[in-house]
Design goal:
TIM Barrel, 8-stranded parallel sheet, binds pyridoxal-5'-phosphate
């Protein structure tokens, strides 16, 4: 038998989440953000479930080409645009829309030989201060682009730094509206958080938006787990990480388990050794006591997570009359066979991180399969 760890990508959950997000967003169209190999799920594995998207937004050219190979003929957006002038040839050939966030990218475009009019998403830096034109130079960038024969349509975009807190987008929206008001073009502002977090209705909350750019919520992650669980928006977990107990240890009160002996048994207790470690993408820094499901029932991790193994408390289950041992199903995050869900956000919070990092960090040694319920 092979090592029992495996991951599942739930197609029904993807479809459900796409529908839930669409029903809540103000924008008329959705870019499903599938950068980083579909947030670690695998582009080919999330493609079917997200076919109902209006377009796919990616980071790298090779992701765009993979989507074309998978048969996607609709819009694809390169979120950071091209990284060198030669990538523009592929944009022309495969009709890839691309962000323009600096003058260098406009220079490349102005020298690019093509018959194909390019679709541009011109990015304003509305306060994040990573990419984009400063508000006061946004119009001149637009004017310069608009004069290029290589350019077909220009859309206007920005990205929020603080969308995960209620009303966190107000200042950036105000800036965006002020400096884009007399420019024509479709508008794209919102990530998942801006789409789902409550904001006070009046004036500044919502300029009409054409394209939302939604990532994490499609995969079932909450946009702010300390305020709302993903289930608040009826989002379902897409990724399940599952393994099994491969050994048990009966600890006497006072005995330890694992490296550093950081866990000491407070009583005689049964623990399970699980085939999952940080080399599989499970965070090493979870505090002892992170939630985990055994046979779909909650218990907790004990001791330190090591490269290939971690330990779970089986005594708590025995207290509830649930027998477990070698071969027992362990759900590290996602949906157990009995339907119980352990949110990836809970595990992420136990490790002082966010669901994005856990999803993207799923190790290549973990076999992944798609799942339909
Ligand atoms: C990643 C990304 C998104 C999606 O963000 P989520 O928080 O996952 O919804 C949207 N826009 C840009 C520019 C991004 O880089």
């Amino acid at each position: 038998m092979t090592r029992p760890i495996q991951a599942f990508v739930d197609q029904n959950a993807l479809q459900n989440n796409l529908a839930e997000v669409k029903s809540r967003m103000l924008a008329s169209k959705i870019w499903s953000v599938v950068k980083a190999n579909g947030y670690g799920h695998g582009l080919s594995r999330i493609f079917e479930g997200l076919r109902g998207s209006d377009g796919f937004a990616v980071l790298e050219l090779n992701e765009a080409l993979t989507l074309r190979e998978l048969g996607w003929r609709g819009p694809i957006l390169l979120l950071e645009g091209v990284f060198d002038a030669r990538e523009l040839e592929e944009c022309s050939r495969h009709q890839l829309w691309h962000t323009v966030h600096n003058e260098t990218q406009i220079d490349w475009l102005s020298r690019h030989k093509t018959q194909q009019g390019h679709r541009i998403f011109l990015k304003m830096n509305s306060g994040m201060n990573r990419l984009g034109f400063k508000p006061h130079s946004f119009k001149s960038a637009w004017t310069r682009l608009n004069a290029l024969p290589q350019v077909d349509e220009i859309s206007l975009m920005t990205h929020f730094s603080d969308a995960d807190v209620p009303n966190g987008t107000q200042t950036a929206i105000k800036t965006f509206m002020q400096y884009s008001q007399d420019l024509s073009g479709e508008v794209s502002l919102s990530n998942s958080a801006a789409t789902l977090m409550p904001s006070k209705p009046p004036v500044l909350s919502a300029p009409s938006e054409d394209w939302a750019r939604v990532g994490i919520s499609l995969y079932g992650g909450s946009v702010n787990p300390s305020l709302f669980p993903a289930s608040h928006w009826n989002l379902e977990p897409v990724m399940t990480l599952q393994s099994q107990v491969i050994a048990t240890q009966a600890l006497k009160a006072g005995e330890h388990v694992g490296y550093g002996s950081i866990f000491q048994a407070p009583r005689d207790m049964l623990i399970g050794i699980v085939a999952c470690g940080y080399a599989d993408g499970y965070p090493r820094n979870v505090a002892s006591g992170a939630p985990v499901l055994v046979h779909g029932t909650r218990t907790q991790t004990v001791g330190r997570v090591s490269m290939d193994m971690m330990c779970v408390d089986l005594e708590q289950l025995r207290d509830q009359g649930i027998e477990s041992g070698v071969g027992s199903e362990v759900t590290l995050w996602g949906r157990a066979k009995n339907g119980t869900v352990l949110s990836i956000d809970e595990v992420a919070m136990s490790a002082q991180t966010i669901s994005y990092e856990l999803m993207c960090g799923l190790a290549t040694r973990v076999p992944v399969s798609t799942l339909e319920r």
